[in-house]
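Throughout this chapter, every protein is written as a compact record of paired, labelled lines. An example of such a record is reproduced below:
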Amino acid sequence: MVHYKLTYLTLRGLCEVNRQIFVVAGKEFEDKRYTFDEFAKHKAEMPFGQVPVLEVDGKKLAQSHAIARYLAKQFGYAGKNAWDEALVNSIADQQKDLMSEIRPYFKVLLGFEKGDLNALGKDVFIPAHHKFFTFITPFLKNNKSGYLVGDSLTWADLLVAEAATWTKQFPNLYDGFPEMKAHAEKIRSIPALKKWIETRPDTVC
């Protein structure tokens, strides 16, 4: 039996989609989480000196999207054909652009920099998400299955729906984007994923 070990920080962050792929696939994995101080002691063990890192029977793979693509291919969530897979990857890459745009918010949230978190939420976090939702909504309007690509779940659905976690801090996150809200509700109602979300560690991000 293959042993999977997923190493990250005590956060959802860049690793959450990797965890969720395991969850919806019903595959066991070792969920190793370090505090920032603990990670400093293990940094040199990582291929690029950072996390997440996936170990498959001891072989290490770094970078969150590389891990997600590998797991999605292994478990059937990459897209059913080459074109669908390319579309899934394009959505994931656009989501990575979103994460770059909202990085200033997270730097303050995690205490790496000083700043006005409320202002960053209003001026950076929400506008960046609404820009992203504007790009992604046509995928849902043009695909009647309720999924972003094709007629079944892909890892792009997991990645995009995770934004709903932030509605506690930002109740207006989905204002003007009913398709995005409905999509998040659909994906997060998958029984295994719903249970995971309800029981996963409560972290700042």
About this structure: The domain at 82-190 is CATH 1.20.1050.10 (Glutathione S-transferase Yfyf (Class Pi); Chain A, domain 2). The two ends are 32 Å apart (CA to CA). Residues 117-141 form the longest helix (25 residues). DSSP finds nine helices and four strands in the chain.
